[in-house]
Amino acid sequence: MNLFGKKKKKKGKNTTETTKNSIIQLRETLNMLEKRENYLEKKIETELQHAKKNATKNRRSAIMALKRKKNYEQQISKASNTRFSIEKQISMLEGASMNFEIMKSMKQGAKAMQNIQNEMSIEQVEDVMDEIQESFQIAEEISEAISQPFGDEFDEDELEEELNELEELGLDEQLTQISQDEIKLPNVPKTTLVNNNTQEEEEPEEESEDEELRKLAQSLEF
Questions:
Q1: Handedness of CA 58, 61, 64, 65 (dihedral sign)
Q2: Residue 93 near residue 23 (C-beta atoms within 8 A)
Q3: Phi first, then psi: what are they for 193, rounded to 5°?
Q4: Superfamily name and number for 11-118
Q5: Which one, of 43, 84, 50, 80, lies nearest residue 64 by Cα?
Q6: Taking Cα atoms as reference points, which of 45, 70, 72, 42 lies closest to residue 53?
Q7: In 54-155, which residue ranges form alpha helices assigned H by DSSP?
Q8: Between the CA of residue 17 and those of 9, 100, 154, what are the distances in Å?
Q9: Sign, CA torsion 27/32/33/34
Q10: What gap in Å lies between CA 193 and CA 175, rounded to an integer?
Q11: Which regions form coiled coils (predicted)?
Q12: Which of 9, 30, 111, 194 has the most CB atoms within 10 Å of its CB?
């Protein structure tokens, strides 16, 4: 039980409902006025026909019909003016209602923004950014630690020295192979010489082995 009486309705909701109801009632009034104008227009047509019919036969009755016609026309004019005022009022209410809803939405948005800002300050944002930066640094350090090779590292100077020795050994082997290929004695072709007098085959004298070795050594000198 509420000790302080009935609970008050929210003002915003009450205002919205009141505006909607007012617009509905005004539209109903417009509909009634339109029906009234249609009815009066029919009455005017009837009185006009009656005046035409009695213009020559019964002038007094014709004049009374014209008077009623004028009265109906005045009522239509008043109804039209009233309808115009109501239409204008409906338009203003609809615009005001729309502005009210917009203002209410913007007010709710501002309140929501304020609630968010109350839960989040500049200092909190800076703290979060510092934590993120620190997390990045830790992740980078972990990545570097994981990428480190296992086992003992080799001395690069020793490796370079061993490589140089292999290069020199390969060069010596190439020179040795070249020397062996050039030391092989070439085959001396046998030539048949014809003597004009005897026409007997004679073999040329072969160069001495010492002479060939001497020429080969001269070709190998750098």
A1: negative
A2: yes
A3: -100, 135
A4: ESAT-6-like (1.10.287.1060)
A5: 50
A6: 45
A7: 59-119, 122-146
A8: 11, 12, 87
A9: positive
A10: 40
A11: 122-176
A12: 30
Please give the C-alpha separations between residue 165 and each of 75, 153, 157, 178, 196, in angstroms, as whole numbers: 126, 21, 13, 20, 65
Q: What are the pLDDT digits (tens) for 40-71? A: 999 999 999 999 998 888 989 999 999 999 99
Residue type, position 93, single letter: L
CA distance 36 to 68: 16
Whether the Cβ atoms of residue 3 and residue 74 lie closer than 8 Å to each other: no
103-153 pLDDT per residue, tens: 989 999 999 988 888 888 888 888 889 999 999 899 988 888 887 766 555
